[in-house]
Amino acid sequence: MESKLAEKKPSSVIPMITMTLLFFMWGFITCMNDILIPHLKQQFQLNFQQSMLVQFAFFGAYFIGSVIYFMISYYKGDPVNKVGYKKGIIAGVLLSAVGCCLFYPAASFSVYGIFLTALFVLGLGFTILQITANAYVTLLGDEEGASSRLNLTQAFNSFGTTIAPVLGGHLIFTLFTQNGQVTADSTRIPYLIFAGILVLLAIVISQVKLPSFSTDAEEERGLGALKFPQLKLGVVGIFCYVGAEVGIGSLLIAFMEKPDTMGLPEVVSKNYLALFWGGAMIGRFLGAISLSNLAQAKKILYMIVAAAVVYLVIFSIVDLTFAQTSFFLVFIVLNILAFFVGRSAPARTLVLFAVVNVILLLVSIFSKGEMAVYPILGIGLFNSIMFSNIYTLSIAGLGKYVSQGSSLLVMAILGGAILPLVQGSLADSAGIQDSFFIPVACYIYILIFGLYCMKKVKVDPDLKVNVNH
């Protein structure tokens, strides 16, 4: 029988701010992959499947790293319980910095394999962050508010992914070019800058007083986390979600370049890519509000204000006119309505968002011109709460098995390596548009997972954690 855990309540404000900064930088560097893909595709004359090896190397590292973590927890006990979340987070940040530094020899020697190695090491660092930082945020308060807190930090993660296509695209395609030509410095210098920022962030985290969490239950080895059916189903859910999101984001620029869609050059399409990721940011801010314990009237007011403010922020970032982005307002209104229909229930909201994404993808697949592109750009809004909701529904009630369960969920980020590769292969053989049937299948599974959780998964408000200073 699971033991209940006692709780002391320190202030979580400083830890949440620290985690927010971390999630922002983490999202920024992750989204740089979407800029690297067309750049490396052109530099090394790759087809779509070969260019997707960027995502295969990066997200494949999540799988390898999580397998290593899980095997250690199986034979030796959970590493996080031994070293603590803070040391785990710092280790992940520093390893990510090493991965960024490896872009220097990759760009200097212009070898695709070294680029992939750098991405793999970077992915290993982010694997440690996925295992430690996501679980840490869910523990900074009561379990019922876990989805709201994780959505909030994920919102700033999305802020990073929103400005990455614009700022990162400027760094690679404009600032560090010579006579308008992309050079080795186009990737070498930006990633050295990222490495320096990550090292600085690790120093900041080491100086911030973060509460540590532990359980008074006796630590057990083995596969205890797998006795929870919601976790097993959630592992597949994360696999599908990450695979769908990464696949869509990776092919968006190429899709918008097609003459029968919008025929946009890369310097313009990167702004629409920012709009796609910006939608995820808006949705996550709205999710943090919707899934909170605020009164309904306050939720309505805060959600409208938040949507308006974040939209204006995105509009100020992208190099697009209001006429070019006004269609996005329709999707924002639809997103807010879906949150209210979901009634602040993580599983119900997940089901609704999965249904909307399936519909948007099908409209895009069977349309031409702008009507093929606009629905896909709206998907970012409805992707917003999926990771955090799948994650928190999967680990609800796991108690002392939370970290082990988290490592399994992070292992499932392998979907970001496998599914884009499959989608890239389908894009080569059948065309980009038909390749979007892959994420359609993914969202259908997420819909099924959400329906299961609506009936079977209940959050235990009494499940708490010990907090030690």
From TrEMBL:
Residues covered by the Major facilitator superfamily (MFS) profile domain: 15-458
Gene Ontology cellular component list: plasma membrane
Keywords: Cell membrane, Membrane, Transmembrane, Transmembrane helix
Transmembrane segment boundaries: 12-36, 56-75, 87-106, 112-137, 158-177, 189-210, 231-255, 275-293, 300-318, 324-342, 349-366, 372-393, 405-424, 436-454
Gene Ontology molecular function: transmembrane transporter activity
Protein's membrane topology: Multi-pass membrane protein
Pfam families in the record: MFS_1
Cellular localisation: Cell inner membrane
Keyword match Membrane: yes
Protein name: Fucose permease
